[in-house]
Amino acid sequence: MNSNSINPKIINYLYYLVCLLPIGFISGPLIPDLIIVISSIVFLYLSQKYKLWYLFKNKFVILLFIFYLIIVISSSLSENILFSFKSSLFYFRFIIFCVMASFILKNKTASDNLIFNFYFYTILVLIIDSYVQYLFGKNLIGLEKIIIAENQSIIDIKITSFFGEDEILGSFLSKMLPIISALYFLKNENRFNLKSLIFVTAIIISIFLTSERAAFIQALMFLTLFFIFGNFKKKILFFICLIVPLFLGVLVITNFDDNKKQRMIKSPIANLKQGRISSHHQSHFITGINMFKDQIMIGHGPKTFRILCKKYKHDDQSCSNHPHNTYIQLLAETGILGFGIVAFLFLFISSMLIKNLYIKLRHSINVLNNDIISILCGIFVYIWPISPHGNFFNNWLSGMLFLQIAILIFLNSIKFVKLNK
Fold this sequence. Notes:
single chain; 2 strands
């Protein structure tokens, strides 16, 4: 049955849910997970009624289902079966949501800008609110900035905006940056203007204010990758218009805020010069490797690091909810098989970016448009191995990742780009 036979109201309702997802992310893990579950159930019904199962034959989707199968088997063989199953058993909802979102976007974005407007103004409000909170101590609804003190001395001030006590504003903005960039280029092809550059600069400065170093580095990494792989003329002008105001903004902030300067500039540079990572992160990594050595093929089961870290600990700093690196977590909890799927995805995306650059330089042909390049760069940064990460199986983070993958599948389908060739 043709997908055009589906009731337009149902398509619209699902589209609104996808549009509202970033606002849900701000509210915490419950609302976005509820959106994902409801939309997935509805889409399964639609797939059965209107014969939409062909959508699940996409190679990305098949790869994701193989990963799902691996983590379910890993949980079933775990010492902590019930606890591990809480993360793995219903993980398929993210995959179904991914297929649903790509299908809905293909049916809707050609006719309106609603999703771009929702995402744009959500980010814009967060940017404004973060500046207000930094300058005046409270945000627009009275939430105070977080003061970090040590020995009765303030060592940093963290900006969280509407996220309140959750220090994830920077993470949210860094992960939304590739998404909003892709949606922008979808409507503007390979063009950019001064307003878009100002908006991106404002995002990066807002991330800097949060004191989330990993998010700040990831945002800069995304911009660097896009500068290298993006398709546009006057790259030098692009670089100057983006870097100069960003540099001046950071310079002004650090000139008046020594704590921010110490945390965001001096401390990372000192660690980089000495080639070191924090002692507790190092302990987490070693503990994760110890777990991997004991269950090489299939791991100990998703989310079991927090339980088994005591058994495989390196020292007194070994335990945490997760080892703070996606690949070490996957090795420890899902073994070579789970690790291999994500590693393959990373290498695949890397090859696509490099291949597009090679063809462009050699034949002056742009195989990929800037919208797809934006989201490829975003996923590349998300699963970049040499970086601290959150819990891979965290619902909030999984929702962010699968939203990016959904947009990639959607863009691939409408541009008829053969990413696998």
